[in-house]
Amino acid sequence: MSNIILSARNLTKHYKQRSGPLGIRTTLIKALDDVSLDLKEGTTLAVVGESGSGKSTLARCLLQLLPLDAGDVLFQGKSLADLSGAALREQRRHLQMVFQDPFASLNPRMRVGEIVEEGLLIHRQGTPEERYERVLRMLKRVGLSEADMKKYPHQFSGGQRQRIGIARALVLEPKVVICDEPVSALDVSIQAQILLLLKELQQEMSLSYLFISHDLRVVRHIADEVAVMHQGKLIEQGNVESIYERPTQEYTRNLLQSIPGRRALAA
Amino acid sequence: MNALLKVENLTVTPKNAPEKRLVDNVSFSLEPGKTTCVVGESGSGKSLTALSIMRLLSPQLELAQGRILFQGQDLTTLDNESLRRIRGGRIGMIFQEPMTSLNPVLTIGKQIGETLAVHQGLSGQALKAKVGALLEQVGIPSNRARSYPDELSGGQRQRVMIAMSIACEPAMLIADEPTTALDVTVQAQILKLLDELKTRMNMAMLFITHDFGVVSDIADDVVVMFRGAIVESGPVADVLNRPQHPYTKALLDCVPDIEGKRPLRPIDYAWLDEGVQV
After folding, report:
1. Nearest CB partner across the interface for A217, out of B210, B256, B266
2. ipTM of the complex
3. A193 touching B, CB under 8 A?
4. Nearest Cα to B47, choosing from B261, B208, B247?
5. Do A255 and B185 count as a contact with CB atoms less than 8 A apart?
6. pLDDT at A266 over 60
7. Is B127 within the bounds of a domain?
8. Cβ–Cβ under 8 Å, residues A67 and A31
9. What is the pTM of this model?
């Protein structure tokens, strides 16, 4: 259980931003500043922080969707930074992502069946019949039907679209899924459904989640370990109990005290 | 008893589909110095209720039925000119998006001043002094009056919106998800500020939110809406701790608790449809 499946070593990513009256000065934004973390196999590591803390940049850098300025990402002990082209693609099959906005992350011109199948095509998995079977099985597992395969994303509600996004990520049977705020655009009742679905799928498919969120109530429910980011730095990490009960950093304490409804619901 | 605002049997329908009740026979009242939270999921009609009170419904919708009595005056019968005097005057408003609600090419001082110039006829030094005082009241140094919206953070922009909304010392403040776009630490500050202002100015606050955490922090009374109708209302402690309606109970069961101990239970809508008369 405690095998480390994904590991970030000293990740650094800087952006230059124009500033000043005519944009003549540039300011260096340290989106990721020497960030290291380990994701254990079969567990959920939540990365929490406020907007601008670098958590989404971290997600993109882990998947090599953004080039790193420094540092390395190890997947099952192998460095991803050294890989390119076909070799990187092969590894990416095991690293999938679920995005925040189920309205923006699905191609509106593709049918749901095609969206979910696309990954299988790119990775040249199976015959057309086998692919159809896998897509169908996955869609059924997330709560959709065969008839839904022919529909377009706009025909679905936000929660259903997030199910499609999950099916798309999981049809490749990945080992690691990076979830970037997967429930923050959803109503609480839908949020609860999706969180439960993610937990069930984790068990069934022995997935490891890197779960990016700003919602500390959600994180408490889903995470085994928590990493707190602030201004590009990872300032504190540990298991969920200890971070919530005994935070060592002032910033973490402040964050926890800001959770709305703390007084009433704790009582 | 002492209601500042009384909404009676408010019903909103699309003009081309009068049978579709987006807001369905909604009644509640607001008292000075108290915060009433309207809580519900998307599409429950909470924002439409707020917009109807301000008479700001989009032209495709109409107020099919009901009265809105504000200080004894029925807002549904007023002409545009009278409504304009009340909006931003005796009724203040704050919206969700502090980024889009401000004019990017005017300084924030100018935008706050506009309200005062229009409603109270202030100008020159008197106006400048009042704008400065308002900024200080919402926790922004008065010399920032010359800043443009893009020079401020999201939280500061929402503070500017609050300064504008309270400029004319309204009797009532309508806040539609004012902290939803903000980070939690900033949200906590803004909630505290709104709560202080409400008490100090003895305002009635109508606060629209989808977040039960926010409700428990800020509300005196709660109105729970579902599919356009009110399913339950009452003092915050009663509704949150002893919910009576199955929908309220189910919705509260979906909210992750801070301890992380209570299992999440999604709403079974089929069961609700069968067992619930809304």
Report:
1. B256
2. 0.79
3. yes
4. B208
5. yes
6. no
7. yes
8. no
9. 0.86
